[in-house]
Amino acid sequence: MRIVLVGPPGAGKGTQAALLAKTLSIPHVSTGDLFRANISQGTELGRLAKSIMDTGKLVPDEVTIAMVKDRLRHDDSGNGFLLDGFPRNTAQAVALDEILAEFGIALDGVLDLEVPEDEVVRRIAGRRLCRNDSGHIFHVLYNPPAVEGVCDICGGELYQRSDDSEETVRTRLEVYHTETEPIIEYYAKQGLVTTISALGKVDEVTERAIAALRENAND
Ligand SMILES: [Zn+2]
Would the pTM count as exceeding 0.70? Predict the structure, then answer.
């Protein structure tokens, strides 16, 4: 199965991508991982991306697209793949269609994870991390520590990452609406989009996603 996963920040996209890829036995292709791999292996694209990132600029679409194309050539993508973080705008979606056409394949579905905006803000802005160990994670509503501001595991001080502030979350959502949401419409015209709610337990969302993808693929 060849799938694109989309959803706003805070939808649990990375977690679902990993679980779906495992369940469907296809590689999880995330742009974050692709960048890290290309940079650590010192590929031509990785060196180019790093030199741009070092100047504080955003990596242009062409570089990201070239990395994805290179990745989809690997043997393990023959059985399908799950794209996470790509395409993130309409230009990238058009480029992906061109790559797939060149390879003589097509997408089977686009899974859209839906979460109400206020819930996204609650999920992210409520996160608290331990200063001693970033793996000690709490949430003021969903997983509160016994004593406010204190880690249950080691007694460390809990804090909110600056990236998790409500203001930053609202800005990230705005970017998602403006840049990424138009690809949902782009794919809807191709009849590829399945929207599911990303609310509920992690494994429930995975089951919902698998059922939706299989149903859409059989249409
Ligand atoms: Zn701790």
Answer: yes
